[in-house]
Amino acid sequence: xxxxxxxxxxxxxxxxxxxxxxxxxxxxxxxxxxxxxxxxxxxxxxxxxxxxxxxxxxxxxxxxxxxxxxxxxxxxxxxxxxxxxxxxxxxxxxxxxxxxxxxxxxxxxxxxxxxxxxxxxxxxxxxxxxxxxxxxxxxxxxxxxxxxxxxxxxxxxxxxxxxxxxxxxxxxxxxxxxxxxxxxxxxxxxxxxxxxxxxxxxxxxxxxxxxxxxxxxxxxxxxxxxxxxxxxxxxxxxxxxxxxxxxxxxxxxxxxxxxxxxxxxxxxxxxxxxxxxxxxxx
Length: 282
Ligand SMILES: [Zn+2]
Ligand SMILES: [Zn+2]
Fold this sequence. Notes:
The protein is an alpha+beta fold.
């Protein structure tokens, strides 16, 4: 946490425009960090034969809704994150107030929603039904369950080999990656799961979203003076992934670096590319 705070301060000094977002991010991280020690989730049981079959067919071990969650902790964290959201900025504050109003009126039960497992479509339906901001609502839910999800992922870490999976989706939960990371001297490329946080290796020249490997339709975007960040573009599916060179930023948190480089997302979008897993602040 201390290293993270230092890095946040460093980025804020360099790019003051990101101050508000980074302060919010730091508060969310602090609260998630606090609940980690007391978190209780069930042990995930995998049947050996089933696991082998899945791996052979290229399927993930779990689906998002299969992760065991600490419902009480997630619920409390949700409420804490709402409080933080109210101080973040006027738009967020207004939207959070709406969410709280609906929750307090008991027109739907958030615990029940979390219990049934996270399904984006259902969350979006509820947001529609009650006139809530989908992005903010989904963000608050995902960040409240994140400590449980990451603990579940840790349980399964030894069940898969990060070096040999080589696919565009996560071997543990099947989600698409939020970022790509370069590591080690040779610049091995890894993908970071947008849902469970697992990291696995992938070829340097491939689009994780459509498996395109044709070199002449894969290209990069850089911003001058920012050699630690890159946008990997695919001409085939017109989507992109942000790549962070962890050899330069060793100790930092990739999600933090993602937030501090929204200008690259704007650049990619201006050129007509989409990000399959957008970061919540875009
Ligand atoms: Zn995953
Ligand atoms: Zn592609």
